[in-house]
Design goal:
- By secondary structure, the chain is α/β, with parallel strands linked by helices.
- The protein is 40% helix and 20% strand.
- It has one domain.
- The strands form three sheets. Strands 1-5-8-9 form a four-stranded mixed sheet, with helices on both faces.
- A hairpin with a 2-residue loop joins β3 and β4.
Amino acid sequence: MLAQLSHYNIIHIYSHAEADNDANGYPWIAAHDDLILLPEIYNSKNNADLILLSACETNLGKQVNGEGVISLARGFFHAGSKSVLASLWKVNDKSSSEIIHYFYQYLKEGNTKAEALRLSKLRYIENHKIESMSPYYWAGVVYIGKDGDLQLGQRSYKPYLLAFVLVILLSAISFYWIRKGRKSIQ
């Protein structure tokens, strides 16, 4: 899967991830029936202007003296990405998907990536009642990297993006059920 990433300008991965729950303590993200570990991301290449990591804890990892936080987001930067939308904790699926939906709308209107995320969070807060206005619902998604606008109108990314998101989503679901089945057998 990682070899395919170099073909896209915008990469949106909607999956399941954890900051340090594998045997070696590496952050990982689920793909198909396997885990993609941080070292695999470090060894991949991409040219993406934007990577959206719609998964939990994608900007968390080990704190290494002299290096900082070693996270999935950092791995994608190392692989060549110019900017990343990542999460700081176990985000709420419904609220984060709503924010990402608004984010795409604001990008399409010509806003910069950072401004699109800011406007998305404000819109989320304006459209919700007090019980879902807590920062837990909207503050966990952060933007890191080079700001600027994306030329969404010049080339259509929707069919590729939709196919990629569906493959990752189906893979994550099957991985979850396989993993859950293994745990119930033991």
